[in-house]
Amino acid sequence: MARKNVLLIVVDQWRADFVPHLMRAAGREPFLRTPNLDRLCREGVTFRNHVTTCVPCGPARASLLTGLYLMNHRAVQNTVPLDARHFNLGKALRGIGYDPALVGYTTTTPDPRATSPRDPRFLGLGDLMDGFRSVGAFEPSMDGYFGWVAQQGFTLPEKREDIWLPDGVDAVPGATALPSRIPHEFSDSAYFTERALTYLKGRNGKPFFLHLGYYRPHPPFVASAPYHAMYAPQDMPAPVRAESPEREAAQHPLLKFYIDSISRGSFFHGAEGSGATLDEADIRQMRATYCGLMTEIDDCLGEVFAYLDETGQWDDTLIIFTSDHGEQLGDHHLLGKIGYFDESFRIPLVIRDPGMRERAGAVDAAFTESIDVMPTILQWLGGDIPPACDGRSLLPLVAGERPADWRTEMHYEYDYRDIFYSRPQDQLGVGMNESSLCVVQDEDYKYVHFAALPPLFFDLKDDPHEFVNRADDPAYAMRVRDYAQKALSWRLVHADRTLTRYRASPQGLHMQEN
After folding, report:
1. pTM of this prediction?
2. Which residue in 75, 171, 245, 409 is deepest, having the highest Cβ count within 10 Å?
């Protein structure tokens, strides 16, 4: 069998409803221009009900690259170590003869039992996941990127992150139409693209696996020229939120905590004040900049796609486009990736299988999850899917064949413990190990179960934006019970099963097929 290539594109903080192909499929005129992503959607299958199984970045990437739910890998927050015993995509690829290259980052904190407490990897949010080979480092502390910028001849300011401040005499921290101080040819998106092309050209046509990561459209929400001015705020969708932060916060104690505590400074360098008090004009401007950062990535992908075209590798390459998580963007008076709303968890997934043209351009409604990416890649390359993997290969869906036992809901989790920043568990009066929630969601209903706080239940047919909690409504009592049972059954079925198919027997070790 001829060797195959895989290009796994993982962007950061890209919401599913900011995919033009999905906008068109829903009958809406796109407000975002992404011709290269559009091409991928036309030639592949786009999944409209796709979620990351957890947030934020470190946990989300752990699930993406191990195929495990948060309840099994337990890297529950950024800076929390990933147990070294867990298998991952990089290690699996090595087992079938691939040297998995990675541009970008995985935000993985190492297992402290496998190294020294003085290991410098414990000084940051995370480092590279074992099994991958970095060919375009970002972590730790973005040194790879900033070193590249300096090598290009650009003089960095004393505080390197100031390159992302708005440029101009009228510049003030916050939502802005001004460009960042770094020219687009030296942006982080340009850096990742240059690193990817350097790697691909070095392969000189030999088979490859490349995880191509991009930092954008992650904040700070300031774009380089000309991307800063590509979109007008008035053309952006308005925020979906209650009439006031106070009205929104009344829904649940965790939501109130975040509305009360989110600061603008985490999204706009140097800005002061609460993120919940952004007015609609600021939110529309923030969204316009967010779109500019997306179009910059799309232009960068065009360079990579052009190289694959020119070298005849386009039709030998499985291409997957996805994100680690979404972004609230002012919806529900929130910023970032937190809580339980769809904006944080629904993400893009596009799969272009060069051998499967029959469904080109299709939008698939099956419920898919980030843990499905690992087994999909392994099956396409002819490898074995690890028995502990919680995800399932999506290749049957790409071919238009939904298995009879496919999942009937989406599932995701969030662990909100924190010790360095906002410490929600202290204010909410819950323990560290009680600071968690899980979600079971289908087309009609959404159930949110908390370990130590009241549950939530939404009727998505009547309340698609999740404003009205029906958990205590007697009319929904039976449904709340049913979905709570679904959540419990889901956790029971997916409890760690690394060794559960093995048996000792009089004939020696026996292994069941499934």
Report:
1. 0.97
2. 75
